[in-house]
Amino acid sequence: xxxxxDIIAAESRAAAFPAARIFADHLAERYGSSVAAVLFYGxxxxxxTDVDLMLDFYILxxxxxxATRNPLSAFFGALLPPNVYYIELPYEGRILRAKVAVMSVxxxxxxxxxxxxxxAIWARFSQRTIxxxxxxxxxxxxxxxxxxxxxRTMMAATAPLLPRQFxxxxxxxxxxxxxxxxxxxxEPPEKAxxxxxxxxxxxxxxxxxxxxxxxxxxxIDSRAPLRWLARRILGKSMNVLRLVKAAFTFQGGLDYxxxxxxxxxxxxxxxxxxxxxxxLLTGARLLLRTLKSGGLK
Length: 297
Fold this sequence. Notes:
- This protein is α+β, with helices and mostly antiparallel strands and 297 residues long.
- The chain has 15 helices and five strands.
- The protein is 57% helix and 13% strand.
């Protein structure tokens, strides 16, 4: 049986396609000496291309202040990590597009652990991830350990929702469905199954590494459904607060926040020019409007 640490280490050191490597180099240069690591994950990694897709990166830094060079953005980035940006880069006659999240190494490691209040970080990084850059071998070692912890946390949170004996596919489909419900991203029920099926060998291997073959769990925690309910309430609330934060911590943030709210919750909001001129007040109104419209259900 392959060790989970070995599986994650091999994944994290895999080669990415050229466009992703170019963009990772660009981000490392853009954020300079504050960068401890660059992580690549998401749909482009899974499909091996960025064509008609948006690249997904996490920039892990020592301190938010050094990365953003904006006291307000740094303060809210530390309070409600991560800060999320949209960045474009010309490449071979076309435009590469990326969603780039910036947070501290310490906040990332906390977010992958079972003590994290929400599933946002450990849910994302229990999936295939490449560490594109790491400042030192020690940073890489710490991040590989955090990715292992994310996988363990995801499985430990979900397995109690299943019978004592289960199959890997059921575990991971249920895990992704639960984490979608804990954010402002009402994916269709079949989306989780599609993601698991396209990389099923990987999910089966990591499940076997923890639960054996066939998978079997010795303990059932009856409080697991309540914990997921708490994650849904807190996770969606935190998502809205991060969107409000985005509305006044970077250029174009209000339009970004409105787009994200509509895309992930179905709540459509039209901004006026006057609202765009008052980002802080408008950000607070976005929160209230989303709550009243049922965007946190």
